[in-house]
Amino acid sequence: MFPILDTQIYGHRLVYLDNAATTQKPQQVIDTLTDYYRTLNSNIHRGAHRLAAEATERYEAVRRQVQSFINARSHREIVFTRGTTESINLVASSLGKLWNDQQLTHSHIHTFTHSPEVIVSGMEHHSNIVPWQLAGATLRVIPFSDEGVLDLDAYRALFNGNTRLVACTHVSNTLGTVNPVEEITRIAHEHGVPVLIDGAQAVAHMAVDVQAIGCDFYCFSGHKMYAPMGVGVMYGREEILDTLPPYQGGGEMIKDVTFERTTYNELPFRFEAGTPSVGDVLGLGSAIDFMLNYSCSPKLGELSAQPTEECVKTGLPAIQAHEESLMRYALEKLSTVPGIRFIGTAPRKAGVISFLLGDAHPYDVGTLLDKLGIAVRTGHHCTQPIMDRYGIPGTVRASFACYTTQADIDALHDALLRIAPMLQ
Ligand code: PLP
Asked: Is the peptide bond before 362 cis (omega within 30 degrees of 0)?
């Protein structure tokens, strides 16, 4: 089902535990991509010919599929981007322009201006930090405990008259913490402040309902949810998107262009300038189909393409159940490795185990694991503030997907036992 998982690395079976960086692709996603380029490739929306019409229809069908996947109210709220990073930059750039305009208007009335403030958590990926700095915002940071749990009392105290947005990750890519995004959103809305949730590490691991969360923006990447690289989603509530200036200018995002003035297209096209990555969007649709049809067999780690009677659950709840039991198994098994120290031990975790092995540098651990066919990630995982918080240079990170098995965890455990003496 996942052809790459049959690969041998230095004569060992590939044990792929770098799923938080990117997931592998099921055969059906690979087929969708190749079929698209073999039979359908054409530019969408503008063409009068048959291929363009069909490609447009299928592209727009995926938009509706994504709408239903995250339970958005309207397909107009689904904007295709290149990934989470571009989605957040889109929102930051458009909101930044608004804030700038408001500040200019304000400065006519008052003799001073305040810089806009954005509240972020202390466990954000750099892509949910830097865009806000580029937008000219001052960041206020929600602290977290040693276990990796956000301090919501401290969060409540961060709001003031300059707060313009709360931007928070749903699941930490380094600590694995699942944050209480519903509560975080509710508190922000009590202050009249909109909320952006970075869902990069959530959408492949649990059912996401943007209406239940109540957030104003929700961003994610296709490649972390079994889809091709090069496609992602920016969900934005229609009422808010309607008020935002465009992000990029070009084809497709306009209604009328003269040299004097341009009027913009309606949602969501206003935010999709230029030729999109059509094949990758179709691949995203295929990945969603894959996840919705996933079924958890009673025997941990077995995959079946079609739901069977003895399966407890299907779709995202099944993936979540599988990964949660795998997490319990892994924490128990790995805690028997001498010298292991887990970074991030929150009660609600999804898919990610970060650790250190004695005094060994994470990079050395990762390099030795690679020689045994085990792919993990090492370093700061684009979350340098988390490393500063713990006073460490980085971690070794093992992260799961729906195809991760107990055998993979056993292989990691055995390999750590084997390499630990070499690193003393
Ligand atoms: N946010 C989180 C929590 C992530 O884990 C990542 C990627 O690792 C990103 C954002 C950025 O995603 P991308 O590189 O796909 O844009």
From this structure: no
Catalytic residue list contains 382: yes
Euclidean distance between CA atoms 176 and 164, whole angstroms: 27
Ligand 1 interacting residues, C-beta cut-off 6 A: 20, 83-85, 125, 127-128, 169, 173, 198, 200-201, 221
Q: Are 145 and 105 contacting, i.e. CB atoms less than 8 angstroms apart?
A: no
Residue carrying the six token digits 């690193």: 423
Q: What are the tens digits of pLDDT across the range 102-133?
A: 877 655 554 445 799 999 999 999 999 999 99
Distance 251 CA to ligand 1 centre (A): 27
Catalytic residue among 168, 311, 382, 402: 382
Q: Dump pLDDT digits (tens) for 89-102.
A: 999 999 999 998 88
Report CA 208 to chain centroid distance, whole Å. Answer: 12
Please give the distance, rounded to the nearest whole angstrom, from the Cα atom of residue 108 to the centre of ligand 1: 39
Q: Give the count of alpha carbons within 13 A of 258, CB side only.
A: 2
